[in-house]
Design brief:
The complex is a heterodimer of chains A (337) and B (341). By secondary structure, chain A is α+β, with helices and mostly antiparallel strands. Chain A has 9 helices and 16 strands. With 341 residues, chain B is an alpha+beta fold. Chain B folds into 2 domains: 231 residues, Aminopeptidase (3-Layer(aba) Sandwich); 85 residues, Peptidase M42, domain 2 (Elongation Factor Tu (Ef-tu), domain 3). In chain B, α1 runs antiparallel to α4 and α4 packs across α8. The two termini of chain B are 33 Å apart. Classes of the chains: A alpha+beta (337), B alpha+beta (341).
């Protein structure tokens, strides 16, 4: 699993620029119908042994948070902004790779030259720049054009007791689980929507849901875990190692109460570790999906993830397996409704 | 000698202040190509010597520091997190969400924790006490690998940017070590006007401590201190910075020897070596401050080159500036300026 997750996470696929990820997924699934729609969503139908009464759709998003070049200075330095919600603090001192392969770094004035005030504050993106080594606009323009994307240039590795670190685990983990479900021999027919542009407002899911018009949707995601030193109680939201996160509500969705209960019950019955969130935080494609068409009964099953939207998303392998197991069991459970 | 590949080798070694041995041992190995009696002392200082054929030759010390800024483990929380302190003054604003290596009995990897928006809503920078290293294992398990006092480095790497610029960790001051090695390479087969004592000193970042010990032992007549200085970036003060690629920076300061500074400037001019003058009014913030007052005193000058983003994991240097510095060291050492008073 680690190798496969590394392969899909190291692909670069910012919102609106998901082709690398889409092509990889399309090349690595065995499905009955594969559609790429106008927005770039990859809509996949996989026939199972049985056809359920309700039309079922799984969804996971292909895009990751990324950066876009907004200005090329006369001095060769590039201005950029985030595509998706990124805390500027996780970008300082990091290397970014431009879509054409050139490398750059996001530096700051040497600490020796910073004022006391400057040391206390994380600068905003408008005050940062990407340094690709160019000393003039002409030199920079050989390597970059306005609107080009940049991605965290960072490594992927396993560490500690079954933990995994990498960029874009949000939501390539969900994509990989759907790929594995498609390539297994599922019990029931289902649609699988690999969506685009989740990070800039769950835009791809709107079109995907309209096209598929499901009765029931199950979103496979990663969700904020803050079970870290210095944080306690409800603010931890959820914990790594405690299994699949089943949400009852987040900032974009109040989940279908019966599906939520069914997911909790299914996990219990099948001995799959599961938990819920202790804070109303975050949001995902469910927000767009559940209000599509005439309304879609929706639930979300997520892998708890520390340091979301950074070069170092951290998940635990056992939680990944718990989400995959619960997703498979939920396909049967909702098919039998 | 290839400056780029030597710099890559040097920046890939670990040598946080007070635990410089991995980097020091590799630097010593590289120095053995050019110098005699190369050794690494108990503090991590690397020294080596090259003799002049002239029996009356004075001793010139060439110094660059081998240590780099980093973190040190101060406490292990029960469930998977290490508390840390700074070695030197790294800019920890640039450490958030970085992956790291903990250099314990066995190296392990981890991640520097960051708070998500629901817990941290403002843009205030963390202090060293606010950050933790997530190692994904309990204190009990971690005890097999990590002990208090182990060093931690950020997992950055050597990256080639365009225009001859390189980004890597520990460019401060492995690029100085690289410049001295490149100068020794150029001096091969040449008659030296000085006896050379080369020192790659430990613990510069924590207060020029290694250089004090080494300079006392060497008792040089003169010293050239090769360290990094501030490179120009958008919004930086042009009076305090030099553009990358502008050549070696020759130091002028009350704490430095004016005649050495002048001689180096004349030499750079006459040999067409790109240079700028770096004026540091009272002291230099380099090993020169310690070496000049060591023993009965040493005439010192600094040779620097501009780097960007000092004390972050993505320090940037231009290889041409290392070359210019190496050329000037070489010319001075060969006695091209008749430097002696």
């Amino acid at each position: 699993m680690l190798d496969k997750l590394e392969e899909i996470c190291q692909l670069n696929g910012g919102s609106g620029d998901e082709a690398q990820v889409r092509d990889f997924i399309a090349a690595n699934i065995r499905a009955d119908e594969v559609i790429t729609d106008n927005l770039g969503n990859l809509l996949v139908f996989k026939k199972g042994k049985k056809t359920p009464k309700n039309k079922i759709m799984f969804a996971a998003h292909m895009d990751e948070v990324s950066f876009i070049i907004t200005h090329i200075g006369d001095d060769g330095f590039l201005s950029f902004d985030a595509v998706g919600g990124v805390n500027p603090g996780v970008v300082l001192g990091k290397a970014l790779r431009l879509e054409n392969g050139a490398l750059g770094v996001v530096g700051v004035k040497a600490i020796h030259q910073q004022s006391v005030e400057e040391r206390k504050k994380i600068p905003d993106f408008s005050e940062m720049y990407l340094d690709i080594g160019a000393s003039s606009r002409e030199e920079a323009e050989k390597h970059v054009s306005l609107g080009d994307r940049a991605y965290f240039d960072t490594e992927f590795f396993g560490f500690g007791n079954g933990f995994i670190k990498g960029k874009a685990i949000d939501d390539r983990a969900g994509c990989l689980i759907m790929m594995e479900m498609i390539n297994s021999e599922p019990e029931y027919d289902a649609w699988y929507a690999f969506t685009v542009q989740e990070e800039i407002g769950t835009r791809g899911a709107k079109a995907a849901t309209f096209t598929i018009a499901p009765d029931i949707a199950i979103v496979l995601e990663t969700t904020t875990a803050c079970d870290i030193a210095g944080v306690s109680g409800a603010k931890m939201v959820c914990e790594l190692g405690s299994g699949a996160v089943v949400s009852y509500m987040d900032r974009s969705t109040i989940y279908d109460r019966k599906l939520y209960a069914l997911a909790v019950e299914t996990a219990q019955k099948c001995g799959i570790p599961a938990q819920t969130k202790t804070l109303i935080a975050g949001g995902n494609d469910s927000g767009a999906i559940h209000v599509s068409c005439g309304g879609v009964r929706t639930c979300a099953i997520s892998v708890p993830c520390r340091y979301l939207h950074s070069p170092s998303c951290v998940i635990k392998e056992s939680d990944f397996y718990a989400v995959r197991a619960l997703a498979e069991k939920m396909l049967s459970a909702v098919s039998e409704l | 000698m290839n400056i780029k590949s030597t710099l890559k080798t040097l920046t890939e070694q670990i040598g946080v202040s007070g635990d410089e041995f991995p980097a020091a041992n590799v630097a010593a190995e590289l120095l053995r190509e050019y110098a005699e009696n190369v050794s690494v002392d108990a503090f991590g200082n690397v020294t080596g010597y090259v003799k002049s054929p002239n029996p009356d030759a004075k001793t010139l010390m060439l110094d660059a520091h081998i240590d780099e800024v980093g973190l040190i483990v101060t406490y292990a929380e029960e469930y998977g997190f290490l508390c840390v302190g700074s070695c030197g003054s790294p800019d920890i604003r640039t450490y958030l969400a970085q992956s790291v290596t903990v250099h314990g009995r066995k190296s392990i990897q981890g991640v520097i924790s960051t708070l998500p928006p629901h817990v941290s809503k403002d843009n205030s920078a963390p202090e060293i006490g606010d950050i933790y290293v997530d190692i994904g294992m309990t204190r009990e398990k971690a005890a097999e690998f990590v002990a208090l006092g182990d060093r931690i480095t950020i997992n950055s790497r050597f990256r080639e940017l365009c225009g001859g610029a390189i980004s890597a960790p520990s460019i401060d001051d492995r690029s100085g070590v690289c410049a001295i090695l490149a100068a020794l390479d150029k001096l091969r087969g040449k008659e030296l006007a000085y006896n050379l004592a080369i020192c790659f000193s430990a613990q510069e970042e924590t207060g020029e401590r290694g250089a004090k010990q080494a300079a006392f032992r060497i008792q040089p007549d003169e010293a050239l201190i090769v360290d990094v200085s501030f490179g120009r970036t958008p919004g930086s003060n042009p009076k305090e910075t030099a553009p990358l690629g502008s050549g070696v920076m020759i130091g002028f300061s009350a704490a430095l020897d004016k005649q050495m500074s002048n001689a180096l400037r004349s030499l750079a001019e006459s040999k067409n070596i790109p240079f700028t003058c770096e004026v540091m009014p009272t002291s230099t913030g380099t090993n020169a401050d310690a070496i000049s007052v060591s023993g009965s005193g040493t005439r010192c000058c600094t040779l620097s080159f501009p780097i960007r983003y000092m004390h972050t994991p993505v320090e940037c240097v231009n290889l041409n500036d290392i070359e210019s510095t190496a050329r000037l060291i070489c010319e001075y050492t060969a006695g091209g300026a008749q430097n002696a008073r």
